[in-house]
Amino acid sequence: MPPEQAAAIDAALDANHHDPTRLVVVLQDVQHRLGYVPPAAVRPIAKALGLSRAEVHGVITFYHDLRTEPGGLHTLRVCQAESCQAAGGAPVWEHVEAVTGTAIGGTTADGSLTTEVVYCLGLCAVSPAALFDERPVGRLTAAAVDRLVVSAREQRGDGHGEVAS
Ligand code: FES
After folding, report:
1. Residue 25's closest CA among 75, 65, 77, 72?
2. Any idea which GO molecular function terms this record carries (predicted)?
3. What is the pTM for the complete model shown?
4. Is 85 found in the same domain as 56?
5. Residue 79 CA: which ligand 1 atom is closest?
6. Which of 9, 33, 55, 69 has its CA 20 to 30 A from that of 90?
């Protein structure tokens, strides 16, 4: 295991006092530090928390927010809950897939953008809604998606994408 991964796992375990009841938080912490939860993390986390590897693996596969491989440098989280459906989100989501060249949940070939589905961002008043990195995007349109995808490509790695209105 690369040293940075081992260090991230140790730090996440220490921050959570090696408490097995905080397994989900430990995994989220690892993902926050590394961008994903490497499959090689399962064994040391299970050992440190006194859990089986199956238990740790089960939690990773249950929580869709946890990734087991690196994502893109930017993330577009598209809400597909009721209000955003009712506001005509479906064609926009289809456009997201067309313009990124991957189903929602995938990463563009250049690694600039990962898309994810979420269910209600608390932005129902401006449905259909999304989050670009951590920034809310309301009334998402195909044109706004185009701008975000271009922004992700142009600003790879700097964490600053254009926010559509
Ligand atoms: S249903 Fe999409 S933000 Fe609430």
Report:
1. 65
2. 2 iron, 2 sulfur cluster binding; metal ion binding; oxidoreductase activity
3. 0.71
4. no
5. 2
6. 69
